[in-house]
Write a structure and sequence with these properties.
Elements: E1 20-22, E2 25-27, H1 30-41, H2 47-50, H3 73-79, E3 80-83, E4 88-93, H4 100-106, E5 116-122, E6 127-132, H5 139-148, H6 170-189, H7 191-195, H8 200-221, H9 223-234, H10 241-261, H11 268-286, E7 305-310, E8 313-318, E9 327-330, E10 340-344, E11 347-350, H12 352-355, E12 361-363, E13 368-369, E14 374-375, E15 380-384, H13 392-398, H14 423-449, H15 453-466, H16 470-489, E16 492-494, H17 498-505, E17 508-512, H18 513-517, E18 526-529, H19 535-545, H20 551-559, E19 568-574, E20 578-583, E21 586-591, H21 593-596, E22 610-616, E23 619-626, H22 634-644, E24 646-650, H23 661-669, E25 675-676, H24 681-693, E26 698-702, H25 708-713, E27 716-721, E28 733-736, H26 743-775, H27 782-806
Parallel strand pairs: 17-24, 17-26, 24-25, 26-27, 27-28
Antiparallel strand pairs: 1-2, 3-4, 4-6, 5-6, 7-8, 7-9, 9-15, 10-13, 10-15, 11-12, 11-14, 16-28, 18-23, 19-20, 20-21, 21-22, 22-23
Length: about 800
């Protein structure tokens, strides 16, 4: 007999054998039925027509009391964006927004409660902007309404601590607009020169007008080059901007001389056009992913408020107001916001995001618990021993050793550019020296050997004008900018285009295990029994495993969630072997094959998965198989990476993890001397430093706070996450977990981008040779310069654009 599982009409998840119904609709839990009822009562069931079962499962009961902190005036003051006598405006981050039905429902909240005046949803940022009438509706009631519909806002400490505003592109756009306006008009006034018209009066006036228009372009629009060159010279470095600025200034002042002394036209059209194209490249390069944050810290991870115990009453208080000696209550699934002494309840603390250890740690009263851990058991009470700002986690985050080394007074550069000489800077140094040498020798030739001072000056300045590496400065942002966007389409979001060059230079890849190679969503438990377990036997198993804190026991407990527990006594856990107890008078064993006894049982197929065997009263029943927790495609990814990079594994897991089935798989991918377990955050950082000291370029891939220091220290740090807008440590890039398998293709694409840039630079040298043939003789006219510069720039843009788009390595 084949049975078809019933799906929930709200969220689409499988319903239990006895689903909860409302009319003809079936639901997996009371929460889903409640949401459906609310929508039905307000004629909002069109929500279900836009997408098939678009809802979010509401199985976890909503603890509405935990939103009491939103009634605190100091919290409201920090969250509210605008408030007057009648209305309030606030913005919430809602991570469960995922489809068009979500947008439609959230933008029709006014039909559920008319006190909500307006709702606007930013889908990319997963933000909801609400305007509501606060005399009729409180901030807490707004959040409770959103939560009741399955769209609970995520309110963290970072929401009320805004240290800096996001960078704005407005100044760059102002400079770009001035350059574009002036360059266009200068070209119009230069038409008499292009067409060879000889009217000295108009020619002189047009030259003066061009000078007036070119001046703000050079000194305002090009101000960024002055700043860049000045900063590099202060550090004793010649960067790519130096020869560009030199060419701009020489062309500007030579043009000024020609206009006033020789009644000429000058090179203003070439200079302003060059600056305009360069600024277009900068704008193209800097437009990145505004909806992502690459500079997150612990505040993004901490809750905004916590329940403080006062005379056995729970009072919500902002985390920032916690003081030493306060008593707080932490419930299941909540984060510990400050270091505290456990004095009531049994702690089962998940520190995986802080230390990388995948197994929760059991803690009894009298134990010090550190901030950042998440309680996965019953409610516990703590006495705060250190405030949030002084906790272990905060000190770890603010540790100076977790910051990339920067010289005093030096502007921080992304992607650890302080340790990395880019191809552009390398070229800039030697290109500048070569051009100055050629120009000097040419000038000396005309002056000392030929005795022609005028030609000597013309030739010297002409070489500086035409031999400009501006084409390299154009191909860089265009090629890398296209790469930035194409990688983004494949779910790798980089801080800026410069990171692509850093990725191409990396020869060593360090991977974290927990949450990076392994998935955070366990696969379904597989049952392998000759005869299926009866409901009574399922209750036996559930009764036994609910006594244990082992990860596999917890997964079995979740697997048999619908089973009813039975009386259990004499529970015993044998380390490394299994667990046993008398369940309703029956001896039940779970664990290793030899522990439970398997006389007469067949040998199960060894697939490398974790297996737990079951016996009842000495009778072997079968086993539960837990499929490997590695993300799909990891094996092929590591095999490809191993061909081009040196691979290292750093894990916070106990060393015994290497002896598990998943640990044995690691030995196939990593050399034993390149796997380090029980790594603290500081140790991970030290490993990165040691490899860099040996001359390696390191790419670090991690996911948790325990990886924060290594991610910052590495030449490139990439944070892996299942939700790009959720919390990730500060990094150079954010990679969606599902795209981790494509990491070899991403690195190959970055190397192709750099080869393309080098190719375009070689092509640009051909244009320079043509220009130099005119400049060496001192006969470089403004018309020749006006033709060569735009032509070379256009060619480089086309090469960079077509090359990066045609390459199929990331498709």
């Amino acid at each position: 007999m084949v049975t078809t599982a019933t799906s929930c009409d709200h969220c689409g998840n499988p319903c239990p054998e006895q689903p909860i119904t409302s009319g003809e609709k079936s639901f997996c839990c009371d929460g889903c039925r409640t949401v459906y009822t609310i929508l039905s009562e307000h004629q909002l069931c069109q929500y279900y027509d836009l997408n098939n079962r678009p809802g979010i499962q509401q199985a976890r009961p909503q603890a509405i009391a935990r939103f009491a902190f939103l009634d605190l005036p100091e919290v409201q003051q920090q969250l509210v964006e605008f408030r007057n006598e009648t209305q309030t405006t606030v913005t919430f981050y809602v991570p469960t927004i995922h489809c068009s039905s979500c947008l439609w429902l959230l933008e029709h909240l006014y039909r559920i409660n008319p006190a909500i005046r307006q709702t606007r949803v930013d889908f990319l940022k997963k933000q909801v902007h609400l305007t509501f009438s606060h005399p009729d509706l409180s901030l807490r009631e707004v959040v409770e309404l959103l939560s009741s519909l399955g769209y609970e806002p995520l309110i963290s400490l970072n929401d009320v601590v805004k240290d800096a505003q996001k960078p704005t592109y407005r100044p760059l756009l102002y400079r770009l607009a001035v350059a574009g306006f002036c360059a266009g008009n200068i070209m119009l006034f230069s038409f008499p020169e292009y067409l060879g018209l000889e009217d000295s009066t108009f020619k002189q006036w047009f030259g003066v007008i061009n000078l007036i228009l070119a001046t703000p372009v050079v000194f305002f629009s090009g101000s960024g080059y002055f700043q860049s060159v000045w900063q590099s010279l202060r550090r004793g470095i010649i960067n790519i901007d130096f020869p560009i600025l030199l060419g701009i200034l020489v062309a500007y002042f030579r043009g000024t001389y020609e206009v006033f002394a020789l009644n000429g036209a000058g090179y203003y059209d070439s200079v302003t056009g060059l600056i305009f194209f360069l600024l277009c490249g900068k704008w193209f390069q800097q437009r990145t992913y505004d909806f992502l944050s690459f500079e997150r810290d612990y505040k993004s991870y901490f809750p905004l408020a916590v329940m403080r115990l006062e005379a056995d009453r729970e009072v919500p208080v902002p985390v920032g107001n916690l003081r030493k000696g306060d008593h707080i209550r932490i419930r299941h699934g909540e984060l510990i916001p400050a270091d505290g002494m456990l004095y009531r309840g049994s702690g089962l603390i998940d520190y995986s995001f802080v230390t990388g250890e995948s197994e929760p740690e059991r803690r009894e009263p009298g134990t010090l618990l550190f901030a950042g851990g998440r309680q996965t058991g019953e409610a516990i009470d703590l006495e705060v021993v250190r405030e949030t700002s002084q906790s272990y986690l905060t000190q770890l985050w603010n540790n100076d050793t977790f910051r990339k080394a920067e010289k005093a007074g030096e502007t921080p550069a992304p992607a650890s550019s302080g340790r990395f000489t880019t191809f552009a800077d390398y070229v800039g140094k030697y290109f500048t020296l070569s051009v100055l040498t050629i120009a000097t020798l040419t000038g000396l030739y005309w002056y000392a050997y030929r005795g022609d001072a005028g030609t000597a000056v013309n030739a010297f300045t002409a070489i500086l004008i035409v031999a400009c590496p501006c084409v390299l400065s154009l191909s860089y942002p265009v090629a890398l900018g296209h790469g930035l966007r194409l990688l983004g389409k494949r779910k790798l979001y980089l801080r800026n285009a410069d990171v692509i060059e850093q990725m191409a230079a990396c020869d060593t890849v360090i991977l974290d295990k927990t949450g990076t190679l392994t998935t955070t969503t366990p696969a379904r438990v597989q049952e392998e029994f000759t005869a299926p377990l009866t409901p009574y036997e399922q209750s036996m198993v559930k009764s036994l495993v609910r006594q244990s804190a082992h990860p596999l026991s917890r997964r079995l407990n979740t697997h048999f969630e619908a089973a009813h527990p039975l009386p259990t006594e004499s529970f015993t856990e044998v380390a490394g072997q299994g667990i046993l107890a008398l369940v309703d008078g029956w001896l039940v064993k779970l664990g290793r094959r030899e522990f439970v006894g398997d006389e007469g049982a067949g040998q199960p197929v060894n697939t490398g998965d974790s297996v737990v065997h079951l016996s009842i009263e000495g009778h072997y029943r079968g086993c539960f198989r837990f499929p490997g927790q590695y993300r799909p495609g990891i094996e092929s990814m590591l095999a490809e990476l191993g061909k081009t990079h040196t691979l290292h594994l750093l894990s916070g897991d106990h060393a015994s993890a290497l002896r598990s089935s998943t640990g044995l798989q690691l030995s196939r991918w990593f050399r034993k001397d390149r796997m380090v377990f029980e790594c603290s955050p500081q140790q991970k950082l030290d490993v990165v430093r040691q490899l860099q000291a040996k001359g390696h370029r390191v790419l670090m891939v991690g996911d948790g706070l325990n990886d924060a220091g290594a991610l910052k220290q590495a030449d490139v740090g990439i944070a892996v996450t299942d939700d790009t807008v959720q919390f990730t440590p500060a990094s150079d890039g954010i990679l969606e977990a599902g795209a981790l398998r494509e990491l070899p293709q991403f690195l190959s694409y970055s190397r192709f981008g750099m080869r393309l840039i080098r190719f375009s630079f070689m092509i640009s040298l051909l244009y320079n040779f043509v220009g130099l043939s005119y400049a060496l003789t001192g006969n470089l006219s403004p018309v020749v310069a006006a033709i060569l510069m735009p032509l070379s720039s256009t060619t480089m843009v086309l090469i960079a654009t077509i090359g990066m788009r045609v390459n199929r390595s990331i498709e």
